Amino acid sequence: MDHEVTSRPSFALLTVSLDRGEAVRAEAGAMVSHDPGVDIETNATGGFLKSLRRAVGGESFFQNTFTATEGGDVQFAPPLPGDIEHLELRGETVYVQSGSYLAGDANLDVDTDFGGARTFLGGEGLFLLRVAGDGPLFVSSYGAIEAIDLDDRDSFVVDTGHVVAFEETADFTVRRVGGLRSTLTSGEGLVCEFTGSGTVWLQSRSQDAFLSWLIPKLPTRSSSSST
Q1: Consecutive 10-residue runs of the chain (227 residues): their mean pLDDT?
Q2: Which secondary structure element, helix H or strand E, spans residue 223, and what is its range?
Q3: pTM, full prediction
């Protein structure tokens, strides 16, 4: 399975070239195009992506599996402007923020890690996926992606809204920034403190921060109807 990422870092586009019999699994809505020699199968998921959101908010989720019958290309793109990073797993495990999962080898085991998801469930809407096995994994970001090597640090603190993925070898704890008053006045919410070894991948922009900036500027229904 070959791949190429173009138009990076702001509007990255992933092209996966499949030989006959190879398959790639992607989040619904991520496909841009595919060759005629590639079949698509859509399945509803239970414990896969966004299962917690589905349980809490009534959302449904489907995944698409693209299998090459004759060989061909499939193109994917994330919903937000940003970059795409390729992680090659060789019996390893990484945790991915659910919104950053784009696509991966169909043989990868992708499931919600409920322990981690409960830890992050604090109003910032960050749910973790546990991805394990052998094969390529593609994660996306809002903004640019930066890899941080924990081996060079005693600890590393990052806002949860900027977490893309991290290796299983990294230990983490989630806490609020200061007390309740400082949380409300600083504009910050939850942070994740990483220790141990491995790599943490960050995104340079936060969806939550963007929504916090955008929503107050949207016209209300009453003001829209009066104009």
Answers
A1: 94 97 92 95 61 41 88 94 97 91 93 55 62 96 95 90 94 74 51 92 89 86 56
A2: helix 221-226
A3: 0.82
| Structural domains of the chain ordered from first start | 2-216 (3.60.160.10)
* CA–CA gap between residue 227 and residue 212 (Å, rounded): 25
- CA pair distance 199, 8, nearest whole angstrom: 21
Pair of tokens at residue 194: 């990483």
Please confirm whether the linkage preceding 81 is cis (ω < 30° from 0).
Answer: no
**Per-residue pLDDT, 108:** 94
The span from the CA of 73 to the CA of 13, in Å, is: 13
Backbone conformation region of residue 102, classed left if phi is above 0, alpha if psi is from -120 to 50, else beta = alpha
The DSSP secondary structure of 6-56, one letter per residue, reads: ESTTTB-EEEEEE-TT-EEEEETT-EEEE-TTEEEEEEE-SSSTTHHHHHH
